[in-house]
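Database export, one record per block. Field names are fixed; values are copied verbatim from the stored entry.
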Amino acid sequence: MKRKPKLGQNFLVDDTVRHAIVDALGDLTKRTVIEIGPGHGAITSILAGRCQRLIALELDRSLAAELTFRFREQSHVEIIQGDFLKTDLRPLVPEGETADVIGNLPYYITSDILLRLFAASSEGLLSRAVLMMQREVADRVAAAPGSRDYGLLSATTQMNATVHHLFTVPPTAFSPPPDIYSTVLRLHFASRFAELGIDSAGFDSFLKKCFAQKRKTLQNNLRFAGYSADQLSALWPAAIPAQARAESLPLEIMADLYLALLRIGNNQHQ
């Protein structure tokens, strides 16, 4: 199998793993599925026999041509040559419905793809996703507050989806074998912004400020972002220790702090 290193291509060849990944999406008989980076079609070939409609997005022109020829007689399978990060998903999802997503994510753009999926889910386009990614990244995505791996990626993901850790995949499942292990996660997209009474754009920006420098306390990060010591002292919730770091706090408490800071900003402009 020819590989283009700049695209991060490690092709899945383990039969048990590829079936387990598709199985994790559940019943697909009436579902539209979007596959990210199908490669040589290890997962595509299974999906084609299970889902109502399959749209596979492949960046590599030669692989897209290979898949187009291979699935030429299956009218419910569409191969699109293009960059997932630049593709408008709205025309791909039937009106009034949602799609599921599956993919072996390139290690170097996993975070970018996740953010793209969250944006699409906020538009009501996506229901769930089964994604394979580098194990260390998956650990960060699924980490709980207070754990070593919890950070901005964890918080951002968990504001947009419920994360389930499924299984880990060894390098031997790929050709050529990568230098790292991979992990498969299942995400059920469910935004928490309305539940917590906060706006998504403002809170996303707030989280970036809170996690700007991981070794600093939350108060220090916020002072660096422009809040004065007096402002923080006046509104600081009793539930947050003065020396707390952002990675130690649950999203509910972070949302309360964000709303308190927002009120200060609003009062200053009145």
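Remark 1: The longest helix spans residues 251-268.
Remark 2: Residues 147 and 248 are 7 Å apart (CA to CA).
End of record.
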